[in-house]
Specification:
The complex is a heterodimer of chains A (220) and B (240). Chain A is mainly α. Chain A contains nine helices and no strands. The longest helix of chain A is centred in the first third of the chain and has 35 residues. The N and C termini of chain A lie far apart (60 Å). In chain B, helix 3 packs across helix 4, helix 3 packs parallel to helix 5 and helix 5 packs parallel to helix 6. The chains are: A mainly alpha (220), B alpha/beta (240). At the A-B interface, helix 6 and helix 7 of A face helix 2, strand 6, helix 3 and helix 5 of B.
Chain lengths: 220, 240
């Protein structure tokens, strides 16, 4: 009934390649998160404080990012823009789609974070002579950051896992690399089993790192 | 000197201040009393420009607070403000709470800002709490921290917005003591307060605000001993 013979050797031999690809995955996720955090912050503030076209664009962004499949967003940056004559490299496609998606989700987290800070904190900062910019960067955002810290960690994990969709636009991150190696040796199951373990380890490392960082950052 | 002329303030259609004229001299301690919703706190917020005004003018040392050409951030350095809900910055230690504005607003060096912060915390009796976060401080301690934070900017004027109203009764005394000390040192103070004892003992003058106008303003002896307007008499009899 079960006559499949496992062959781990070809997979284990290629583990260095897989780890290299994992590094690419991590890199793409980190870059997308940095961009996503910055844009998400802008989107949240725009939705809260501006009106007119800027607000409309920000709201549409958040709606589309949160309410359509991530895969479709990726295809838009790949095939959609391609059809319009804009040809991006797989790397740029994946970073763009991930950033777009993360920014949308994070914008909502940030909005909740900002709303959790009493407006009197802003008044107190202004009363000391701080500018609007100083009040936000020194008083409001550091407090918001703590509130959204764990949602950001979750989003980071999601970015790592979602980057696996990159293989569908020909990007050789961890999943793409696995697919390529597997199809050369036909050890599909073994390859993806090992890759799953690598994903798991990467996520665990991120979570542990996040927890350590939180202990250092949030003493209050 | 703070000069207020014909000040009118609306929240939407609701007129909160209906023509306030008031002068506060340097070195004076002025208490503002009156019922909740009479416009006392709004008056304070208008003085340091946290609320826009619709009519009239407020001048601080000759500078129009609400003029477009005024650098409000610069002017606010002259006016320390203490809030009802003390508003300590929870992500900063007591020392950092106090040292931040001198550093980033006044451009002091880190060491200078630290020194002045430590000095001011010592001044309000928090010398042993420099590295404590606000969450580890009582309400009274947090309010004293807020006073130290305002003082660290070396303001000419201190504005107190019901500084003791949100405190547990047993913590009111320590904050009032800090305010008394400040008054004795000659600080110019405007105190919106419900503490009639404080208003009577510490103030040079007391203003009674009713429905957006100053109904009566005089020395504490007159205000509490020989009130003239019926509204003030009624207000005082309700409190006692």
């Amino acid at each position: 009934m079960f006559d499949y013979n496992f062959h781990w050797r070809p997979v284990l031999k290629n583990i260095p390649d897989l780890l290299e690809a994992a590094a690419v995955t991590l890199q793409v996720a980190v870059i997308s998160m940095v961009i996503g955090i910055l844009i998400g912050l802008v989107l949240a503030l725009t939705r809260m404080h501006l009106s007119g076209p800027a607000r409309w664009i920000a709201s549409t962004w958040v709606e589309v990012a949160r309410n359509t499949p991530a895969l479709f967003q990726l295809f838009f940056f790949g095939f959609g823009l391609g059809a319009m004559g804009v040809h991006l490299s797989p790397y740029v496609i994946v970073v763009s789609a991930l950033s777009f998606n993360c920014a949308g989700y994070l914008a909502e987290n940030f909005r909740g974070g900002f709303q959790a800070i009493p407006t009197t904190q802003f008044r107190a900062a202004r009363s000391l002579g701080m500018t609007v910019w100083q009040s936000y960067t020194r008083i409001i955002i550091p407090q918001v950051f703590r509130i959204v810290y764990h949602p950001i960690t979750n989003q980071m994990v999601w970015a790592v896992l979602m980057s696996s969709l990159g293989m569908l636009v020909g990007f050789r991150e961890l999943s793409g690399e696995t697919q390529a190696l597997a199809s050369r040796t036909y050890r599909i199951f073994e390859y993806f089993a090992v890759t799953a373990v690598i994903y798991y380890a990467v996520v665990k490392i991120i979570l542990a790192g996040s927890r350590l960082l939180a202990m250092r950052l949030f003493r209050y | 000197m703070i000069e207020i002329r014909g000040l009118e303030k609306f929240f939407g259609n609701l007129q909160v201040l209906k023509g306030v004229d008031l002068d506060v001299r340097k070195g004076e301690v002025l208490s503002i009393i009156g019922a909740s919703g009479s416009g006392k706190s709004t008056l304070l917020y208008c003085i340091n420009g946290l609320e826009p005004i619709q009519k009239g003018s407020i001048k601080v040392d000759g500078t129009d607070v609400h003029a477009k050409s005024t650098n409000i951030n610069h002017l606010r350095q002259k006016m320390g403000m203490v809030f009802q809900q003390w508003n300590s910055f929870p992500h900063l230690t007591a020392l950092e709470n106090v040292a931040l504005a001198p550093k980033i607003v006044k451009g002091m060096s880190k060491a200078q800002a630290r020194d002045i912060a430590a000095k001011q915390l010592e001044h309000v009796g928090l010398g042993d709490k420099l590295d404590a976060y606000p969450s580890a401080l009582s309400g009274g301690q947090q309010q004293r921290l807020a006073i130290a934070r305002a003082l660290a900017m070396e303001p000419t004027y201190m504005l107190f917005d019901e500084a003791t109203s949100a405190l547990d009764p047993e913590l009111v005394g320590e904050v009032l003591d800090a305010m008394r000390l400040l008054a004795q040192e000659g600080m110019t103070m405007i105190c919106v307060t419900h503490e009639m004892g404080f208003a009577r003992d510490v103030s040079d003058r007391v203003a009674f605000v009713h429905e957006g106008i100053i109904e009566e303003i005089d020395t504490p002896t007159e205000i509490f001993g020989a009130p003239k307007s019926d509204l003030l008499k009624k207000f005082l009899s309700n409190i006692r």
